[in-house]
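<given_protein>
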Amino acid sequence: MAGAIGIAAVVVLALLVMFWEWLSGGDSGSTTIRNVALVLAGAAALGLAGWRSTVADRQSKTAQQGLLNERYQKGAEMLGSDVLSVRLAGIYALQRLATEHPGQYHLQVMRLFCAFVRLPTEDQVLESARTPVRPGSPLGLRQDVESVIDVIGSRDSTSIALEREADHILDLRGADLCGGRIFDSDLSGGVFHRANLSGMYVANTDFRGASFRDADLSKAQFFDVSFTGAHLSLANLSGAMLQGVELVRMNLHHVNLSGANLGGANLSGSILQYAKLSKAALDDANLSEASFLKADLSRSLLIGADLSGARVVDTDLTSANISDANLSGVQFSLGGQQPANGLTQSQLDQARADPENPPNLLGVLDAETNQQLVWHGRPL
């Protein structure tokens, strides 16, 4: 368009010059006519050349787009191959396509990869070759599925921004990732409803804002993992390794953490109503301001844990070890709710509290003597 306007401007200018020369008597009429014809012929030639260039450019772009579409289709076909090496080649071919042309193919490739993880190509040989990563752990993840997870987790900030702009989510609902390994990945915002992540080994991974409703994370190991803003309600984390994990102000109602290792973890301000924490290791954990309404803390280890300001109402504390735990301002009893149960005077006497802010024990009875518990524990 700009080229056509430029040619037209040059032609008009040339005609004006020739017209002026003709008026001033500089050229004869025949000379002027010849010059006009030459200008018009030149303009036509330039216009034709420009049109041919535009057509050629369009044809080139069409051909290039056709090649890109062919690359995508070929990669998708390779994912469906019954040969592992072909599937792996397809995975990396699609990753390269999405990296080179993110605006066109990133979202398409991510949707395809998520679908593959949810329902991978059947491979009986590969399934039979799966072995536990560690003795006693679940079978390891299939190599092709683990490769796709690695690719998804390695998305750069530009690709993630594209996903957010398009409201795209990593849909991994119901995926079987049992026994897999995830390192240095960004899976923030992913949806893992009813997914099987049991026995996984996860390190340096971002799960911020992810949803694990009804997911199985039992016996999984998490190191340097961020769950900030994640949804873990109704998830099964029994026997999981969560030492030092940040779970601040999270909704963890009905979560199963029985037998989990949460030593040194930060659960301050979190809601653990109806949570199962039987036999959980919570030593030195930060549980301040947390809510444990109707939770099961029986036989849990709370040695040195900070429970200051927590609400531990209608909670089972049978055989829980609260030695050196900070019970300052803990509500073991609250109007309208059943008091905590299972606690004994001998347990209570091993804990500590701010003398000016002792725990509320009104109506809390000794599980052995049925007598009112009295605070005379040690100061902080």
